[in-house]
Amino acid sequence: MIYLDNAATTKVSEEVKAKMSDYLSDGYGNPSSNHKLGRESEKAINKSRKIIAEEINADSEEIVFTSGGTESNNTVIKGLLGKNDKVVTTVVEHKSILEACDKVEKKQGVRVKKLSVNDDGSVNISELKECLSSDVKLVSVIHGNNEIGTVNDIKRIGKLCSENNILFHTDVSQSFLKEDIDVEEMNIDLMTLNSHKIHGPKGVGALYLSEGVSIESLLDGGSHEFGVRAGTPSVHNIVGFGEAVKQWSEENNEKMKDLRDKLIEGLLDISDTILNGSEENRLCNNVNVSFKDVNGDDLVKHLGKEDIMVSTGSACEENKIELSHVIEALGLSEDWGRGTLRLTLSKYNSEEEIQIVIDKIKKTVKSLRKI
Ligand SMILES: *Cc1c(COP(=O)(O)O)cnc(C)c1O
Which of ligand 1's atoms lies nearest the C-alpha of 69? Predict the structure, then answer.
């Protein structure tokens, strides 16, 4: 099997599995319990908190564990915004931002402005500047795009927000550990982090909440996680998340980048093929291409039969017939947009696999175009 769908989720690493298993067996205490077993769980959670905080130059107390990226994003939008507040976001955000925005707009009268993007999918900075009026409470812009891999200049956006006294949130679910992130230097007030895109377990994520930013909890029923997220923390998942961060290496980023460029080169060799997203500012593991006059779903199915796992777009939109909202935002016409394929790498991929995939795609595109 060749797995190239690492933007959807990644394999849990052996080291992570081993660490988690300790807390699924003997270390089962509730971190709120005031006895030895409870305190051990609490200690384990705080160790993960510290690992993650240090990675982004935050304090441990600024890290709130959640059930994942979706919950962190929902908490930001629904916990921060109320009647007549204004939020500025973009048309290429993850659905957990876009649909949460739609909901608060409809239900609470929050004013939502969605910025368009440039041809490479990066946020239009001049349009953003025009929107930064004093009535804007929050700007939310994704860092590394989960579909097309474009990396936004969040340092620049953070600076603009800070100069205008506006809170800045960014979703780094895809870019965490692949790009340098420093919440101080980048003026980030709130940030969404995710575990299962970095070889950690599913069902856990974090919300970075800068000291002094207060937010309403989505859930009631306890003062866990500094009162921001009620409910017994998922100890084994949080331990796994921390271990995944610890295990990540810059070396693997370089390896993925190398494979990414080989894959892009091989695929662009096919006639009538374009690369979507930015060439220079691109996640080290993302390839997103469109083949003219090919149906991406057919391509995914054909490759699937050969045990090659790829995707047409984001995992959440796989079963829809429409073009993904991100591909649409790039302005691709139907005959190009339909033939979109996303291939996303991990440290477990090899050069040999990449060559096999290029050859198979070449053949499959050719035969699909004949039909
Ligand atoms: C995966 C992802 C999410 C959702 O995270 P879950 O942990 O799966 O809920 C949010 N934003 C981006 C950019 C993602 O890639």
Answer: 5
Helical H runs in 132-249?
154-163, 235-247
Reported as a single tens digit per residue, the pLDDT across 313-371 is 755 555 556 789 999 999 999 999 999 999 999 999 999 999 999 999 999 999 999 98
Strand (E) or helix (H) holding 289:
strand 286-291
Catalytic residue of the set 101, 131, 161, 316: 316
Which is nearest to 42 in space by CA: 193, 225, 194?
225
Query: 346 near 199, Cβ under 8 Å?
Result: yes
Ligand 1 center to 272 CA (angstroms): 31
Closest C-alpha among 27, 23, 29 to residue 232: 29
The letter for the amino acid at 168 is F
pLDDT tens, 144-200? 999 999 999 999 999 999 999 999 999 999 999 999 999 999 999 999 999 999 999
- Nearest-CA residue for atom 4 of ligand 1: 69
Angle between helices 14-24 and 235-247 (to 10 degrees): 160
First-to-final CA distance of the chain: 27
User: What number does the ligand 1 atom closest to the CA of 93 have?
Assistant: 13
Whose CA is closest to atom 12 on ligand 1? 173
Is residue 316 annotated as part of the catalytic site, yes or no? yes
pTM > 0.70: yes or no: yes
- Residue to mutate (ligand 1; options 94, 175, 177, 204; most atoms within 8 A of CB): 94
Q: How far is the CA of 175 from the centre of ligand 1 (A)?
A: 11
Instruction: For residue 120, give Cα distances in angstroms to 92, 255, 281, 284, 329.
Output: 11, 24, 9, 16, 10
